[in-house]
Amino acid sequence: MSAIFRFKQFNIDQSNCAMRVNTDGVLLGVLPDFHGKGRMLDIGAGTGVVSLICAQRFPDLMVDAVEIDAAAAQTASLNFAASPFAERLRCVAAPFQSLPSSLPLTEGCYDLILSNPPFFLASLKNPNPEKHVARHADDSFFEELFAFANKFLSARGELCMVLPPDTARQVLKLASAIGFNVFGQISLHSFQYSDPHRFILRMSKEIKPRVDTDFTIYEAPKVYSQGYAEALRDFFTIF
């Protein structure tokens, strides 16, 4: 399998990344109708694909990315530098908790925080150490993420995550307890009548009317839905 994933306007070299380009990441980048202006933070950037998708979608968006795995962060930086959006992208090899010492941050500086985070909480650890870092979090991860967002997200900004159902339920309870408003949930289904396997949660400190939607990836085995093709038409070379 080639280490290069080719998009219409950029390429992703994923040779040094434990977690490769995946459906969760690309749908997090393309589905929510972000306002697309100001400054964004991508937490757990991996290959940098979410950052690059958002940079393509929104020409007025400045993008910071953080990745705890040094090799993956280097790969993301190289992918950024090779893209047409290089001047609006930067990646830091650090946990988001240390960002105030790694980047010049002021309170409320981010208009958008995205994360395709580690989500196997309190589960069997992956024996591959790189995949363990990429896919697992302890129970404090989301508490620290909300605390960070509470400080560095702008008053009208958005925190958006893609999560499996069990973790999403935990995060929804935590968001409510901390005072974040969940104003949107996109339920991702493999097929029209299958149970959702992921949720994209959209949250803000601001009270907004809640709008929930469903999104289906396949209309038949190995046949993408029309909605999926439309969502990825500007990005995937197969459409």
Q: What structural keywords apply?
A:
two-stranded antiparallel ribbon, 12 strands, 239 residues, globular, 8-stranded mixed beta sheet, alpha/beta, single chain
Q: Quick recap of the structure?
A:
The chain is of the alpha/beta class and 239 residues long. It contains eight helices and twelve strands.
Architecture blueprint of SSEs:
Layout lengths: L3 E3 L4 E3 L9 H8 L7 E6 L5 H9 L3 E6 L3 H12 L7 E4 L6 H4 L7 E6 L13 H7 L4 H13 E11 L1 H14 L2 E9 L8 E7 L6 E6 L1 E3 L2 E2 L1 H7 L7
Parallel strand pairs: 3-4, 3-6, 4-5, 6-7, 8-10
Antiparallel strand pairs: 1-2, 7-9, 8-9, 11-12
Walk me through this protein's architecture.
The protein has 239 residues and is an alpha/beta fold. 31% of the residues lie in helices and 28% in strands. It has an 8-stranded mixed beta sheet with strand order 5-4-3-6-7-9-8-10. A two-stranded antiparallel sheet has the order 1-2. Helix 1 (23-30) packs parallel to helix 2. The two termini are 20 Å apart. Mean pLDDT is 90; it is low at 120-126 and 129-136.
